[in-house]
Amino acid sequence: MHDGSGRIHVQGLNKRFGPVHAVQDLSFTVQPGAVTGFLGPNGAGKTTALRMILGLITPTSGSATINGLPFHRLPNPGGIVGAVLDAHGFHPNRTARHHLRCYAAAMNVPDSQVDRALELVGLAAAADRKTGGFSLGMRQRLALATALLGDPQILVLDEPANGLDPEGIAWLRGFLHAFAAGGRTVLMSSHFLREIENTVDRLVIISQGRCVYDGHIEELRAAQQARALVQADSPDVLVGRVQQAGFGVEYLPDGRLAVIGADSRAVADLAREAGVALYAMQDERIDLEQLFFRLTQGQYAGLPQYAPPMRGTWADRPGEGGDV
Ligand SMILES: Nc1ncnc2c1ncn2[C@@H]1O[C@H](COP(=O)(O)OP(=O)(O)OP(=O)(O)O)[C@@H](O)[C@H]1O
Questions:
Q1: Ligand 1 close to Cβ of residue 191 (< 6 A)
Q2: pLDDT (tens digit, 9 = 90+) per residue, 292-301?
Q3: What pLDDT is stored for residue 314 in this prediction?
Q4: pLDDT (tens digit, 9 = 90+) per residue, 107-151?
Q5: 42 lines ligand 1 (CB under 6 A)
Q6: Hey, where are the domains in the chain?
Q7: CATH 3.40.50.2000 fits 1-80+152-224+288-324, yes or no
Q8: Which amino acid residue places its CA nearest to atom 13 of ligand 1?
């Protein structure tokens, strides 16, 4: 028996495709009553992880459960989980209604659910149009309607905002919030933080198959820290002094130091105490998107030398500490 909790639990999940380690020791829990964003750059392993959660591919090791059971052991899975992995596979000569009726028949769901799903996604007026003429946004809505046919407790959506115009994104946001507010569960992936930052309550961020952040988006916002960027004549001496004062510090590629959580005035005072001359000072505030780039930059560039001290649950990153 499944536990009816609405929880998705991923534990120590790994997937290798030959030499590619697409998902590496991934662990997180998705809770009901909230929209959880699954965020990472292209190729980070999001789709692979979602496919393992949905039982479409077998993990190399680790486990993924929904309501306490692996997907393939769920009774009536369509009534528990609705999934959208791809908004493309529609027969172009079928109408939206016909498409949904085919799925409803396969799922043993009454036809009345078809009209309900069309209403829910705002496609009632296009119900008898052939899907071949649908825009990407309409196809996204139809894919969502397909996932909703079984009136599921949990939605798993791969890049559902992809191709939606701002109005479509606003609509999706309202829909998913209402869905989650009723105590249901939403896990949605995206590679674009801006696209989902106002939609999600929680975030799981992955980079190179690994989890680099798991926590509330508000905690991430709170972690947006000021940095003072300074050019010093004796950087190592200044690093020692600012660390002694309790600040984190990063060496930037251009030779400057970034003192985390300090303003340039505080750094100037410390530099004076240490007898270090400063040639340039700049105050910087990191926004959420920059934070995302910094968290995931190891995928494309060298990993950062220093993990900024932030709240939330920071998963282990190669070469870095764990929770900070
Ligand atoms: N069937 C497969 N065979 C070989 N490699 C694969 C396969 N599926 C995925 N990969 C590789 O695994 C890595 C993760 O891919 P995945 O599609 O899961 O990432 P993603 O985060 O969903 O990316 P995107 O945002 O571009 O969709 C990539 O390097 C990809 O090339």
A1: yes
A2: 887 887 554 3
A3: 41
A4: 889 989 999 999 999 999 999 999 999 988 899 999 999 999 999
A5: yes
A6: 1-80+152-224+288-324, 225-285
A7: no
A8: 22
Q: Which residues of 159-174 are buried (b: 16+ CB within 10 A; e: fewer)?
A: bbbeebeeebbebbbe
Q: How far is the CA of 322 from the centre of ligand 1 (A)?
A: 26
Name the residue of 13, 16, 20 whose CB sits within 8 Å of the most ligand 1 atoms, as the mutation to test its pocket: 20
Regarding the domain delimited by 225-285, which CATH topology (the fold level of the hierarchy) does it fall under? Alpha-Beta Plaits (3.30.70)
3-state SS class at 47 = helix
Q: What is the pLDDT of residues 221-249, one digit of tens each?
A: 776 667 899 999 999 999 999 999 999 99
Would you say 104 and 164 are in contact if contact means Cβ atoms under 8 Å apart? no
- C-beta neighbour count of 309 within 10 angstroms: 15
pLDDT digits (tens, 9 = 90+) for 26-61: 999 999 999 999 999 999 999 999 999 999 999 999
